[in-house]
Structure formats: C-alpha cells, structure tokens
Write a structure and sequence with these properties.
heterodimer, A: 358 residues, A middle domain of Talin 1, B: 417 residues, mainly beta, Methylamine Dehydrogenase, Chain H, five-stranded antiparallel sheet, 4% helix, Imelysin-like domain-containing protein (chain A)
C-alpha cells in the first residue's frame, strides 16, 4: 500500500470516527502530509476565516450603532457604542495572530497597520491621536471615510476610535455623561467617529474579501492560494506557525497588555481572545476532525504537546488574575514552543536563517 | 493558479508620498569620518561584467548550505545546466571567495566563532585543504583574495586580546604572512576595492568568544566602523562610523566606481529606546556615509536586521535582504531612494547574475528566485527549487571554466529543479 493511499485511509478513518460518537479522533490521526494538510484546512475554515468574519460583523455593528447614536446622543447609546468598540477590538485579536495574507499583503501599506497602529513597533500613539482629534474638531474639513483614507496609520484605527468614544477631547474626561455632552455640543465628533468607523469597515471588508474572494485583485482567494501552498517561498504550516510565534513575541516584547485598550480597559479581553484562537489553531474546534496538537500526540511527541497545553493553561490563569508579568512570561514560553516543540514535533523547519542569522 | 505579484516597485510619485507621509522620519545622513581625503577610485573590481563569456565558461551560484552538522558544506548551482552539487565541509560555512587565478578554487570560511576554512576544488568536487586558525583566533565568516590570487585575506578575531584582525595567508603554502589590526573589534566582512590594493572592512564592533558561542560580550561599549586599509601594509587609510553606535556594520559590497553599500544589524538589547534605525548606508569615495533612512515602514519590517547586500552596478541599485522580515528591499545608490521590494520567506542569499540583468535570491528552503534588475519584478519562469538543499546566508555569482566537470560523478545526489 503506498504512502498516499495509507494516508488517505487514515484521514478517512478520522472522519468516520468523528461521525460515529462525536469523539475527537485526534488520538488516531497519524502525522502525514495529508493529515497536516487537512488540519491546516480546518484551521483556515474553522478558525481564521470565521475570525475575519466576526471582525467584519463587529465593524458593521459599530457603524450601525454610531448612526443611531449620532441621531440622538444619550448615555445608553454611548454605552452601546463602547460595547461595540470592545467587541470590535476583541475580535481583532482573533485575527491578529494570523498576520499574513490580506491582513498583511503590502510592505508599505498593510491593512493591519490601519487597524492597529501599536502592532508595528509597539509605539503608543495615544497622544498623537489626541492632538489630531483636537485639530480635526477645530478644522472645517469634511470628516468622512474618504478623508480618513488619506491619513497615515497613526491617526486611524482602533486607537483613534477608542480615544473618540471613551473620553472627551476637551479634557480627556472618561465620564459617560461628559462624553455624551461633547458629542451633543460638538457634532463634528460624530462625523469624525463615523469616518473612522467607515474606514475600519473598509479594512475589515478587504480582509474578508481577500480570504474568500480575490487576493490582491487576483483571480483566486487567499484561502485557495494558501491551501495550495502558493506562497512567498514558504509552506502553509510554516506561515501559520511563524505568524503565531511573531504575535506571541510581540505580546511580550512590546508589553502589549499594558499598552493597548487602556482607555476602555478591554486589554485583558483582547489577550484572552488571542489565546482562544491560538488554542483553536492547535487543538481544533468542535468542527475539527484532526488538530496539530493531536498529530503531535500521535507521533510520539505527546510530551511536547502537553508542554504547550500547560503553557496555554498558565496563560489563561495569568489572564484571570490580570497578572501582566506572568502573562508576558507565558507568551514568551509559547513563543518558544512555536520555535521548537511545535515545529520539531511536526517535522517542519522554520528556516535556518530565520532562527539563526549572522 | 498564480500568486499575485509580491514585489513592489516604487514609482517616483509614490516615493515622494512615502517621504511625506512618515512623520518624524529618520535624519538622512551623517557621519563622523576621518581622513576622507583618501579618495578611493578605480575602474574595476570583482563584480561580474556584462561582456560575453569565453567558450566553456559558465556562471555558478555558490553558497554555504546545509541545515545540520551532517550536511554542512559548500553548494553550487549552474543556472545554465540546471544542476546543483555540493561538497561536505564538516562545519557550517558562511562567506566564500574565489581564487582569481584558479577559478575552480573556492575558499569557504566558517561562520563565527568557527576556526576552520576549507579550500574547495569544485571541478574535483572535493576539499583540497583544511586550514585552522592560529591559537586564540576564530574566523568571522568572510574573506577575499588579492587580485593576483597570491594572498588570502580573512577577517578574524583574536579573542584572547579582544581585537579584530585581518590575517593574510600565502596561497601557495597557506602560511600566515601577515596579521594586521582591523582597526576595531569583531570584523565581519572584507572586500577588495576596485584599485585592487585597498581593503574595505566591516568592523562589527562586537566582542565574542568561542566558549560563549554567539553571546556579545561588549554590548555597552561596542564600536562598529567601516575601515579602508592598505592591503599590502595593513595601514589604516580611513575609518568611518555610523551615528547609531549600536548598529553593527556586518556586510558590504563594492561597485566598480568604489561606491560601498553596507548592511547593519542593530543590537537592540543594548539600546535604551525603540527608535527606528537606518540599517543600510552608502559610502562614496571622499564623501560622508549616507544613510538609507526612508521609508520607515520598509525599514521597520527588516526587524533591525540586514543579512546580506549586493550592488547591481548596471542599474546602480543595491539590494538588502532580511530573513527576519522575509524581505528584500532595493535602494538606488545615487539618489538613495527606495526602488522596490520583494517578499520571500527566510531570504538571505543575494547576488547579481553575471550579466547584471537579475538579482538572484536564495532561501533556506532551497529555493532560488530571479528578479529583473531593472524592473525588480520576479521572472517566475526562472524559479528553481532544490528540495534537499538549504542555502545559507550568502550566495555569490562566480564564473567557472568547464563547470560541467563539477557535476561529473557527483559527490552528493543532484536534485532536479
């Protein structure tokens, strides 16, 4: 029996067992190229694409709520708006670990940068945004989406929306009534927030379209290209692992939890979402029939898989305790897992230059 | 099914926009120099020419290769013959140099802090000679021959004294005939200038010790510099430093007119800020160093690390690679403007084809890609992939007579492209 046929039977068996009793069949899937390909396909379809859809939905919800709020600004409306922003920012952390494809398809003007200015180099642009908002409110420019399309990344995205929705421009007062009062007294603030939200929706739509329909205005979706392995000299598994590794490195190196979403106090929810999708990536979802950690278990690398699981659990504990030191430490540990235990167990090389330059 | 183009070419209008859009960008020049009057001019250097090849000569792309101790060696590709071969070295190599008088002879230098170099005859597909450093020394990874091939210059570290050295060997016996101070610590690359007498040296400024592997022992006091040296006497002619003291000058290339492009690696752990640092620079004879400081969005994606640099003399464009950023970016060496960029996973090896029509890019997955040097677009029909090969940091384009001999009775299995 050749290897391909054997692998196909393994994969078929995996699907059959899953259908019988609902048990995850990871304990019977062996590590083959076919099972890896299936696991990656399921990650794309069950985790990544749904995460981008959720992000788009949240951006649309925010725009819708802004329209309602601006028609008659009141405290309840602002509370709804702020919750919408929190959902949007949280959902972004479901996308951010997968910072490739349409999220990051341009060296100079990548989409992610216009959503999350902190991600580039860990620079906190809060003061820059505050100054810009002050200037915009004092100007006579029409503050629509087209206007913000021409702005550089520092002035737009989640941070700009957070500053606009969670504090007054005049005195950085976070009291709900004071923020509402400013929206009432300064209608341009609604224009500004709506313009920023419109740009956010555009970026989210671009990401969803790229994954599902047309990547870089080509004939194929990124999903198709990614699963076919038609990438920048890499393989889908390497792209996935490398992207998640870089995200985890970013969390620790930039002390992200103590710098993002500080006005909204949504930082821990965002960290939690990031861990959720990384766990999904590794363990699969209820819809998965094979997972990366399952393949590690079944290829004699159960110890490595358990190490990863333990680190994920520890990261969750740190989130529950809101202990940023421990959280950053566990992000660093998981970063290490992505460099060593996971690729070694899945028999994949991330690249000699990548890990060991000179 | 085709992947849409991953390269970016920057038209002049967009360049202006890029420059305008980046607030607080880097200052675009500066340097502290000494003795700039030592103008370095010459007509030629080791760059390939665009003239027709003599009969029987072929281009070879040569690189250290291998991903583990059992497979480390020197590999080469013939783009004409579409074949690859290699010789095992027993250590992880880094840079290489071709003997101008015996073109089938290539020296591969151990990666720091290795202590061995090998002389390889690629016709015979064998190691002719293994040479160890003198006691207390380790190699830095690069070296070059004198124009007449009689001398081999290698940059080394005297780790007992903590000094950088340029060690000179007589290629007839491989005996050491001179040992010059490099003018700094941790020299990494050395090249012969177009006058064929002057050496240009990248002093990385980093103190290391073989017992401490790749640990940097002098982060606080590191001092990197670009040094021009009389290759016959060891006299230091001039020395240049970058404004950012934590930018380690690691690699360089030289154009036929003496323009030098340098690539640095920033020691971020030694810095007390997160400011973006210009990683590349251009040095022209008699002028201060000029930083390639824009656009900051592109620089940011290099992740503080340039792995290799090559100048295309015909297009006056220098390419810089970053395996950390999976990116190669190109700047015009006269206008200092970004000319384009290309994404390629784990790319580091970077060469120019002998006819100067292409940039040649290699990565650790065994892939080779060619970009048109004028348009900076990839020619996808020229892609090569060698499944069982792992090209290391540097790739050189060499001209070799009777290259077909180097594939006869191959020492290692040859994979198809």
């Amino acid at each position: 029996m050749n290897k391909l046929l054997l692998s196909s039977l393994c994969v078929a068996a995996v699907g059959w067992l899953a259908g019988c009793d609902g048990t995850r069949p990871n304990d019977v899937a062996s590590l083959t190229q076919e099972s890896l390909d299936l696991a990656i396909e399921q990650v794309v379809d069950n985790t990544i694409i749904p995460a981008t859809n959720d992000f788009l939905s949240a951006s649309q919800d925010l725009s819708g709520s802004l329209e309602e709020f601006c028609a008659a600004p009141d405290r309840a409306g602002l509370e709804t708006l702020q919750e919408r922003w929190k959902t949007l920012a949280t959902n972004w952390y479901g996308v951010l670990p997968f910072n490739f494809g349409p999220v990051n398809d341009d060296v100079v003007f990548p989409a992610y940068l216009y959503i999350d200015s902190y991600r580039l180099r860990g620079t906190n642009y809060t003061e820059t945004v505050r100054t810009e908002i002050d200037n915009l409110l004092a100007s006579s420019d029409e503050l629509n989406t087209t206007y913000f399309e021409g702005k550089t990344f520092q002035y737009v995205g989640l941070l700009a929306l957070e500053v606009a929705l969670f504090e007054t421009a005049a005195s950085q007062n976070s009291n709900l009534d004071a923020v509402v009062a400013e929206f009432v007294s300064t209608p341009r603030k609604c224009e500004l927030a709506s313009g920023l939200a419109g740009l956010m929706e555009e970026k989210a739509q671009y990401i969803v379209d790229g994954w599902n329909t047309s990547y870089l205005e080509g004939e194929s979706s990124y999903r198709t290209l990614f699963l076919a392995g038609d990438l920048d000299g890499s393989t889908p598994l390497v792209v996935l692992i490398t992207s998640v590794q870089e995200y985890l490195d970013y969390l620790d190196a930039r002390d992200t939890v103590n710098n993002v979403a500080q006005l909204s106090a949504n930082n821990w929810a965002q960290m939690s979402k990031g861990i959720d999708v990384i766990e999904e990536l590794l363990e699969g979802t209820d819809a998965s029939t094979v997972s990366l950690l399952g393949l590690m278990d079944n290829s004699g690398n159960g110890t490595n898989a358990d190490t990863v699981r333990a680190n994920i659990a520890a990261a969750r504990e740190a989130i529950a305790d809101q202990d940023s030191v421990s959280f950053n430490s566990m992000a660093a540990a998981l970063d290490g897992n992505c460099k060593r235990e996971i690729p070694d167990s899945l028999d994949v090389s991330l690249g000699i230059n990548f890990t060991d330059g000179d | 099914m085709k992947l849409p183009e991953q390269a970016g070419v920057v038209p002049s209008s967009q360049r202006r926009r890029l420059l305008q859009m980046i607030p607080g960008g880097l200052v675009a020049a500066a340097v502290v120099g000494a003795n700039p009057a030592r103008a370095l001019t010459s007509a030629t250097n080791s760059h390939n020419t665009t003239t027709a090849l003599p009969a029987g000569w072929h281009e070879a792309w040569v690189s250290a290769e291998g991903s583990d101790a059992e497979h480390f060696g020197l590999g080469w590709i013939s783009p004409d013959l579409q074949q690859a071969n290699s010789v095992l070295a027993g250590f992880r190599g880094h840079g290489m140099a071709q003997n101008p008088q015996q073109p089938a002879q290539v020296v591969m230098f151990s990666r720091a802090p290795g202590r061995e170099l090998v002389v390889v005859d690629i016709h015979k597909q064998s190691v002719l000679k293994r040479i160890d450093c003198q006691p207390g020394y380790h190699l830095a990874g690069h070296g070059c021959f004198s124009a007449d091939g009689r001398l081999l210059y290698s940059v080394e570290s005297n780790y007992e004294k903590g000094s950088g050295q340029v060690v000179v060997r007589d290629t007839s016996s491989w005996a050491i005939v001179a040992d010059y101070s490099s003018g700094g610590i941790g020299p990494h690359e050395v090249r012969l200038m177009p006058d064929q007498q002057t050496l240009v040296i990248a002093n990385g400024g980093l103190l290391t010790h073989p017992d401490r592997k790749e640990e940097v022992l002098n982060l606080d006091s590191m001092d990197s510099s670009l040094v021009y040296m009389n290759g016959a006497t060891g006299e230091i002619l001039s020395q240049w430093r970058l404004p950012e003291s934590k930018a380690s000058i690691r690699h360089l290339d030289v154009a036929p007119d003496g323009t030098v492009a340098i690539a640095t690696q920033v020691q971020r752990a030694a810095m007390h800020n997160n400011d973006l640092v210009a990683l590349g620079a251009i040095h022209k004879p008699g002028q201060p160093l000029q930083l390639l400081a824009e656009p900051s969005m592109v620089l940011a994606q290099f992740d503080d690390y340039m792995g290799s640099v090559v100048i295309n003399a015909r297009e006056r464009v220098a390419g810089f690679s970053s395996p950390r950023g999976n990116l190669v970016a190109f700047w015009n060496i006269d206008s200092l403007e970004l000319a384009g960029y290309y994404r390629f996973h784990d790319v580091c090896g970077l060469a120019c084809s002998r006819d100067q029509k292409h940039f040649v890019l290699s990565n650790s997955a065994g892939e080779v890609r060619l970009l048109d040097a004028a348009s900076l677009k990839e020619n996808r029909t020229l892609r090569m992939s060698w499944n069982d090969r792992h090209w290391d940091n540097h790739m050189n384009s060499l001209l070799v007579p009777d290259l077909h001999l180097s594939f006869r009775a191959a020492a290692n299995p040859v994979t198809s492209a």
